[in-house]
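Section 3.1: Structural characterization of target chains.
Under the original work plan, the team committed to producing a structural model for every single-chain target entering the pipeline before any wet-lab resources were allocated. The record below documents one such target. The sequence was received from the expression subgroup and is listed exactly as submitted; it comprises 104 residues.
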Amino acid sequence: MTINLEQMALKELRDLKVRVEKAISTYEDRRKQEALVELEEVAQKMGFSLADLTGISVAKKRKPAEAKYANPADSSETWTGRGRKPRWVQAALESGKSLEDLAI
C-alpha cells in the first residue's frame, strides 16, 4: 500500500499522524490479545482453559444492579440505591417524601 504524502492536505496528514500514533501505542496490547486467543484455543483443544493451566482465576463480570427507586414524575429515571443520590431523589427527600415512597 503506497500513500502519496505529497498530495495530501495538512488536515489529512494530521489525521493520518494521529491514526499512526494510536496504532503504535496499541500495537503491543493487540499482540498480547492475539497471543491470549491462540493460547486459549490450544488449551481448549487439550480439554483445559487457560485459567486452569496458569492457575490465574478470571474475574467474572457482575450484572448491573437492579433499580430500586424510580422518579414518580418520570419513571425512566431510576436509581439502584448505590452511590450518590440523584437530584430527583434529593428533591423528593427534601419535600418530605421517604425512600419507601420512591420504591419500585
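Residues 69-102 form one domain.
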